[in-house]
Specification:
By secondary structure, this protein is mainly alpha-helical. The chain is 70% helix and 0% strand. Helix 1 (4-16) runs parallel beside helix 2.
Length: 57
Amino acid sequence: MPTLIDYLYVSVTNSTAFSPTDTMPLSTRAKLMMAVQSVAALMTSLLVIARAVSNLN
């Protein structure tokens, strides 16, 4: 039976597009850690892009 964490994991990985295509974590802890990693990767990418755009001036 899916729980809130399952739906949250699917939502985060689909919205950030950093989802793994060949693996599916089974434990709740692994899902949460992979979701945190996806959000961290997205934030890092956004910071690098923002820095590059600010250096154009």
